[in-house]
Amino acid sequence: MKSTADGVPGEQVEPAAIPRLGTTWFDRGAGYWLRRIAHGCFQLALLLFAGLVVTAFYAGFWEAVGVPRSARTAVYAVTAVACLLSLLAGFVRTRRAPVEIPTPEQAWREHRSRQRRNAASAAGGRWTLLLLAPVLPATVAWAIGTWAAPTLARRTAAEIGAREDYERRVREQEERAEAARPLPPRNRAERRHGRR
Question: pTM of the predicted model, to two decimals?
Answer without folding.
Answer: 0.60
